[in-house]
Structure prediction request, 691 residues.
Amino acid sequence: MQQSKRWAWLKSWEALMFIILCAVVVANLRLSEHYLDLNNLANIFHLSIEKSLVVLIMAFVIINGEIDLSVASVMGLSATVLAERYDAGWPIAAGFALALCVGILCGLLNGLFSAYMGIPSLIVTLAGLIGYRGVARILLEDRSVGDFPSWFTSLGQDGIIGPFPLTIFVFIALFILGFVILQYSVFGRYVYAIGNNRAAAEYAGINAKQVKVTIFMASGLIAALAGAFYAARLGNVRANAAEGFELDIITIVLLGGVSIFGGTGTMIGVGLSLLVVLNLRNGMSLSNVDGNTQTSVIGLLLILSVLVPNLIQLLQRLLPRLFSVIAGFMNKGGATKPKSQVSVHQ
Amino acid sequence: MRRIRRWVPLQRLREFSLVIILIIVVLIFGNQIDNYYTPRTFNRISSTVALITLVAVGQTMVVLTRNVDLSVGSVVGFTAYFVGRYVSKNEDMAPLMLAALAMGIGAGMGLINGLLVAYGRIPAIVVTLGTMAIYRGLLVEYSDSKSVATRELPDWIKELPQESLFHYGEYELRALPAIALAAVIIIFFLLLYSSFGRRLYAIGSSPEAANLAGIRAPRMVTLAFTMCGAMAGLGGMLYLARFGTITVDAARGMELQVVAAVVVGGVNILGGSGTVLGAMLGAILIGTIEQSLIRMNINEFWKDALLGLCIIIAVTVDRILINQLTPWWSRTELQRMPEEPHAAV
Prediction:
């Protein structure tokens, strides 16, 4: 009994993620001497900064018991709106503002249909995934818009402190904001309460529908922001921008210990899993592993991260039984049926 | 009236309304497009829909048990490549053996999904999100990023899509739609009248009740995933026959189309209700809209936006209709069911 208490912290998801992170970092250090270069460290974050941003809000969505498959399409739509308006002669700032508004509108639609119409968010956002991308295709067709003013692209590409660009600092600020809101604010507690048991939360007087719509709108806003960053980083927008990002994003959140059924998971866990995935991908890129194989390694990690704790739990349940069978065998000199667990302890 | 209500379950009504929507859609397109009511249109739409229908049939079984299989696209891609590579080396392979091989590979992949979900107790969306990436990675590793080209294939498989089994005037029933139709009919009766099918519905409606009734849910769920994988495997062979050239990106994103077809077909994503007939109608509706839009010469770029709109309209209308009809249909002694808890599957 005492032993299980001493090692209890090891069972927490964050500890597991931290151990995996250490293993990945050590492996990367042995793999390449350039791993610790400042440029490489900046690159780790810089190359997937858009996904990292959306991961933060996706954690809210999934803890709340919903899912948002449409984020990548909203990212693409926002980048497309920005580019299309720039092409039509608007200043970048105005296009950027419009892109954010479009993102919020997409989130609002998702939220209204899932919270107020009672359609599962998986379906609503699946329609959104197809539909919002479709709007992006209507706007840009098969054109590619680039030639943004240099201040805009340098915002996404050039470092402002050392090699770290502005977007990384935006991410850090949003991470801290998300952490505080989720773990320490009333709203954050509402998010957990609704994700745990929506009916109970509503009986406790929480306006679940309003909270859900708010979260979906925030998800649209952050996705739109990430889309604009994507345009700034690549300096060139096509209608298929950010296609397929939603799966990576959801994988990172689930790997962070957030239950797909909602109600559990922490921002720290999600942050650690983000570091694990980014470092793992970086390490594999340094050793020339193909992109698809990288994704499948992360898929394997996702499955194992849930499977292994489940198996350990199963073993913990089975081992005392096994011992009691052996003990019974030695005491009475014959095999007896194992008694129930409770009676063994008494 | 009471007689009708007793003998026609609500689910049939749902499918009936889908048929009506389909007819309306066809009438609208027929009005807009010259020469719409021709055998060519029919043949084209039916060959397009066959593939999605076949995979959607398997997906329906998984969704009925309150799970979802997102790995079908990767399974279709992998089997298409594997079978294509295999048949290009063994040209004298019998067609049925090849189909069995494809289904076997698919079933193996489905079995892995099922075991992880049912016995590893991992949520289906997590498992299949992972295996979607893993199976795609397997394809990349196995193929070494090379493609199967049409010219490497034996003639019979290249001619399979044009093969016509039965024709009425110029309206043909080609091989691909025939296979899909056969699968729909078999699985339809299997789900409605076999104890296996009823158990799937029971598990999806209420896992606790099913458990108390003595149903071994893990075994059934594993079986459902395995059959879904087998269907996707067969779909892989048809994919090979239809497209000929298989790259590592084959059937990427197909899982979304399949889930969309299942959902539009009125299969409840929270499990327990829906039929493969509905899934087929969903696939036909989506396929008809897609193909007709291409014919209409309005910009092809409108396709996705309209498809998304269609899905949300279909689901919303279905939701409202069923909500309104359920209390009336099941007469007064059954009160309206309380809303189901919201879970992201």
